[in-house]
Amino acid sequence: DDADGRTRFEELIAADDRVEPSDWMPEAYRKTLVRQISQHAHSEVIGMQPEANWIGRAPSLKRKAILMAKVQDEAGHGLYLYSAAQTLGTDRDTMFEQLIAGSAKYSSIFNYLTPTWADMGSIGWLVDGAAICNQVPLCRASYGPYGRAMVRICKEESFHQRQGFEILLSLMAGTPEQRAMAQESVNRWYWPALMMFGPPDDESPNSQQSMAWNIKRLSNDGLRQRFIDMLVPQAEVLGVTLPDPDLRWNEERGHYDHGPLDWDEFHEVLAGRGQANAQRLERRRQAHEDGAWVREAARAYAERMAARREE
Ligand code: ACO
């Protein structure tokens, strides 16, 4: 019964154990997990587009093969995450419909355009770097299927991060034009990547409860700081400048201080007015329609197999 279920749930959380699909859980816990996991799945799926833009134009066969593998990994991440969300009782069709209708959120970062090859480097280094920073603590999320999905995703994200770093490293060892292309790209991606961690802690409505439930382990600002501290030495290795004049080491805090983020821009992107929101959704909708024959064929095949079993 519910009273027993609630006690057991509270014990699991207090002991920092895992909650599994068959366990009783508060409706609000279920709801926030479906919210976060489905947004995360949508981000992976929409996140294929900015890079798919460069598959046909990658500068060598090797780069092309790597980029294709990476974009396929992202499709896979989306699928594990939709599966994890489904264990909470929301089916994939419903989540897909919400995405296509434009009523579901996905990460702000994927609404930025990728006009240059260096953007493949910046996405790997900064976007996937931020993703790992945010997702490693999620491997310990209290909800079992989510935490377990994150383990594999983080391993693949580490590879993605390194391949991006290596693209930038190659460009920085190249001609003045290539170096300028890398720097210009880092200038565009740096601030949006910092916004991936979400609004400041005092404007984050979900953080407190999600941390109490051991879904989130660290706050948005805490992770953002960790990421900045990690980037500074990496930027030095690359030889790129991070575009923040206020960035400097604070001996007392033991962290880098940084300049203010443009939260108006963040809210504009969330409201659908980023560089590519309309294009991303339109492309997703089109892909879904183009895939209708696959769903129909799968359904027809399943029906035929079921009929055969009845014979
Ligand atoms: N882009 C779009 N929406 C965002 C972003 C962002 N960068 N950051 C926060 N939001 C949304 C939240 O989803 C929430 O919306 P909702 O209440 O309508 O659902 C709202 O802004 C307020 O934010 P928070 O209260 O801080 O939300 P939350 O506690 O869920 O924290 C966070 C946001 C950090 C993104 C969290 O959901 C999370 O860790 N998600 C899993 C990781 C993820 O989704 N990564 C996707 C990008 S990485 C990749 O796919 C490669």
Automatic annotation (TrEMBL):
Gene3D superfamilies per record: 1.20.1260.10
InterPro entries: Aromatic_CoA_ox/epox, Ferritin-like, Ferritin-like_SF, PaaA, PaaA_PaaC
Top-level taxon of origin: Bacteria
NCBIfam families per UniProt: PA_CoA_Oxy1
Protein name: 1,2-phenylacetyl-CoA epoxidase subunit PaaA
